[in-house]
Design a protein that fits this description.
With 151 residues, the protein is α+β, with helices and mostly antiparallel strands. The chain is 32% helix and 18% strand.
């Protein structure tokens, strides 16, 4: 497919955003909220036995150009690409969703974002809840992970 270049204009149109985005806390919150409300969680391809293609160009085409929704790795993969395209310092992390019983494998993706002097913002676009920054003990758009360990 060639080299993929993230189209910020098409992405912002898909999110119905007309404002410019800068790598700030406000920019992060704006993107996260807009993607959550404009690109839905859906798992039709999984339910229909179709494969999931996480190739950046195909993922962007599905979620932005067609426009469809996606599941965790698709939504958060697109979001990570967007963060990097808007010059956020972000990297992917794997996580597990654990509600009871034995912990499962790491089957969820999120991103670790560093902003100015704030390090360790963990964020993702969650399936059926409000958009949140993970604070370890709960969800809050004002929270960040506190850690004494370097990243």
């Amino acid at each position: 497919m060639g080299i993929f270049k993230f189209d910020t204009t098409a992405y912002l149109q898909r999110l119905r955003l007309s404002e410019s985005i800068s790598p700030t806390t406000k920019g992060l919150r704006t993107l996260q909220r807009a993607q959550f409300f404009n690109i839905p969680f859906e798992n039709f391809d999984i339910q229909l036995g179709r494969g999931i293609d996480l190739d950046p160009a195909r993922l962007f085409d599905k979620l932005v150009h067609h426009p469809r929704g996606g599941y965790c790795f698709e939504l958060n993969g697109l979001f990570l690409m967007a963060l990097r395209a808007f010059e956020f310092e972000a990297r992917p992390l794997l996580a597990r969703v654990h509600t009871s019983g034995e912990p499962s494998g790491r089957g969820h993706q999120l991103a670790l974002v560093d902003l100015d002097d704030r390090h360790g913002w963990q964020m993702w676009v969650w399936e059926n809840t409000t958009v949140a920054l993970f604070a370890g003990t709960g969800y809050s758009s004002e929270s960040r992970r506190e850690s004494n360990t370097p990243h």
